[in-house]
Design a protein that fits this description.
It is a single chain. Strands 1, 2, 9, 10, 11, 12, 21 and 22 form an eight-stranded mixed β-sheet that branches. The protein has an eight-stranded mixed β-sheet with strand order 6-7-5-15-16-17-14-19, sandwiched between helices. It is an alpha+beta fold and 404 residues long. The chain folds into three domains: 157 residues, FAD/NAD(P)-binding domain (3-Layer(bba) Sandwich), CATH 3.50.50; 52 residues, no CATH class; 139 residues, D-Amino Acid Oxidase, Chain A, domain 2.
């Protein structure tokens, strides 16, 4: 019998468990993860960027949690000796037509309370000598970190608090037992007063297991990366981003210097035919059928047909991928790029074809379901955890029992 059970051992689930341990030191806390290690999916395959929050609508959860999260993540890394670097990044316009969008992005950064600076092409070259641009923005609070290391520290702290961590444990059913919930898994059943669903790529399905309507369907998008060969890493000093298309939900291919010194280029964004499909050939009939029969997907596809076709071309054509990168750094050649790992983004999509553009946290009966937490969830993980715990404190029956 547990007070709290968290489904999902990614960075959001672990952060939530850790904050619960701080807020309810006498609580019995359980974390269930179906894989053999923590941070196996979205967290373990992301870009490793500590985002600033410049892209997100002022007042949104993403804007607030990311801005605050970039600070709390750096403080956490400093406190626990985790390698990180607040190296800043540049966002650049490569042609005059992009200048109005760059200006809008700068104004959004100011509205979100960030330290941002307009810089000339000459100033950009002082930071990134090989970049081609007509103008740029420097975002000071952007950094890099290995989020797997962060998650391992979260898990270590949860254990020190007395939390119960279970790997290789997949939740297959959820049933009510009075006011409590029973999680039926491949390793037996666990009863809990309160359940927090942080199942990422499967969060909508887990919500339905708990008799909660997730309000959207998870559609998986695979982001494919290349890596610069070691002898070409000198081309990138920090992080280099293009001006994103505000009508398209992804940031465009960019360059990221990782904490280990390697440089990743990408990602593109293509529909994955499997929720955990990290390779082009990965396929799952159930996952594929759910997307193909979902009206929201076809409405989205029709709206973004041109961009979608370009993303598919980049997926199958290294030359096309290279050409996109050359807009930022003309010196990059196809032979300078080698394939590296891909990631899959769990993107919630509404039935009307609109992407859920903010974090989506749905309340259930003695449960909370995180039904949309793509990037910048890793940056924001400490803040999301706090927000979930704050929601739980509103359940007076749970609060009184746990604190009795």
């Amino acid at each position: 019998m547990y007070d709290f059970a968290i489904i999902g051992g990614g960075i959001v689930g672990l952060s939530t468990a850790m904050d619960l341990g701080k807020s309810y030191p006498n609580a019995r806390i359980l974390v269930l993860e179906k894989e053999s290690q923590w941070a196996f999916h979205q967290t373990g395959n992301n870009s490793g960027v500590i985002h600033s929050g410049i892209y997100y609508k002022p007042g949104s959860f993403k804007a607030k949690f990311c801005r605050d999260g970039s600070r709390s993540m750096v403080e956490f890394c400093q406190e626990h000796g985790i390698d990180h670097d607040v190296c800043s990044k540049v966002i650049v316009a490569t042609e005059a037509a992009e200048l109005p969008r760059l200006e809008n992005l700068y104004q959004r950064g100011v509205e979100n309370g960030l330290k941002v600076e307009k810089i000339t092409p000459e100033a950009v070259k002082e930071i990134e000598p090989h970049v081609n641009c007509v103008a740029g923005i420097k975002v000071f609070s952007t950094g890099i970190v290995n989020y797997k290391q962060v998650c391992h520290k979260y898990a270590e702290l949860i254990q020190q608090q007395g939390g119960d961590l279970r790997l290789n444990t997949k939740v297959e059913k959820i049933r009510l037992a009075g006011k409590n919930q029973v999680l039926v898994t491949n390793q037996g059943s666990y009863e809990a007063r309160f359940v927090i669903n942080c199942a990422g790529l499967h969060s909508d399905r887990v919500a339905k297991l708990g008799q909660v309507e997730p309000q959207a369907k998870i559609v998986p998008f695979r982001g494919e990366y290349y890596e610069l060969t070691p002898e070409k890493r000198y081309l990138v000093k920090t992080l280099i981003y293009p001006v994103p298309n505000p009508d398209f939900p992804f940031l465009g291919v960019h360059f990221t210097r990782m904490i280990d010194g390697s440089v990743h280029a990408g990602p593109n964004a293509v529909l994955s035919l499997k929720r955990e499909g990290y390779h082009k050939t990965d396929f799952d009939f159930r996952d594929f059928a759910e997307v193909m029969t979902y009206p929201g997907f076809w409405k989205l596809a029709a709206k973004h047909a041109d961009e979608g076709i370009q993303e598919i071309i980049r997926s199958f054509s290294k030359a096309a991928f290279t050409k996109s990168l050359q807009k930022l750094i003309p010196e990059v050649q196809a032979q300078d790029l080698v394939p590296t790992h891909a990631g899959v983004r769990a993107q919630a999509l509404m039935n009307d074809g609109k992407l859920v553009d903010d974090f989506l946290i749905v309340q259930g009966q003695n449960s909370v379901h995180v039904c949309n937490a793509p990037s910048p969830a890793a940056t924001s993980s400490l803040e999301i955890g706090k927000a979930i715990v704050a929601q739980i404190s509103q359940h007076s029956d749970i609060y009184s029992v746990v604190n009795s």
